[in-house]
Amino acid sequence: MQTNRKQLKNARMWKYFMEAAVETIEESGIEKVTIRKIADRAGFTSSTAYNYFKDLSHLKFFAAMRFTKSYTEELPYYLDKGENTIEKWLCAWACFCKHSFEQPKIYEVLFMDNVGGSAQDLLDHYYSMFEEDLIGLPEDVRSIVMEHSFLKRSVLFIQQAVEEGLLKEEKIEVVSDMTLMIWKGIMSTFINERRSLTKEEAVSLTLSYVKQTLSHAVPEEEKKRINWDIEL
Predict the structure, then answer these.
(1) How much is the pTM?
(2) Residue 60 lies in a domain
(3) Same domain? 77 vs 21
(4) Residue pair 35/46 in contact by the 8 Å Cβ criterion
(5) Which residues form the HTH tetR-type domain (predicted)?
(6) Which one of 113, 121, 130, 154 has the largest count of C-beta atoms within 10 Å of its C-beta?
(7) The domain spanning residue 20 has which CATH number?
(8) Are residues 109 and 155 in the same domain?
(9) Based on the domain organization, do 152 and 48 belong to the same domain?
């Protein structure tokens, strides 16, 4: 009984700090978040916050996850546009690009920053605390959002394309890795303003390169089975 009370208290405190972190991000941006700002807003000391979060990178990761709900909710509608695995994967990329370039700093924290440990462990812990975020998600979408590694996500997702005859087994990991690096490169360029790109241009450029990468991987005789102009 005492253990249960302690667990409930820890969960309650964890969520207090999470709510404070989300409010701080909405007010100042995730790049200006500090443990002190979050603790002050939550009504506790910084030392208390460190009892529940290893460091600021962990708290930022958890808080950033609260801003991805619109992506996970919209993803099933994008997937429904595709008739085969390649088309569905292109649509999934379109959804991810739309949301990630709308909130670049959030997605940078989730997929590019050093979080001081296992990002998968952090993701698992987040969904153990916010299980309601998974309610109503189709099983294929749930398996995507609960896998942090974007490379593994892609490999798992497009494996079906091999059975459909649209990709060779040996192409899966290469295509998955190349498309991830394309997104990371363009996202870094966009965030650091190394090129003059609007959000829409960044999305369009990423999807164009993803399509080209896929096109080179699909056997020539199978390309006609894919609607490359599918509405993304």
Answers:
(1) 0.89
(2) no
(3) no
(4) yes
(5) 11-71
(6) 154
(7) 1.10.10.60
(8) yes
(9) no
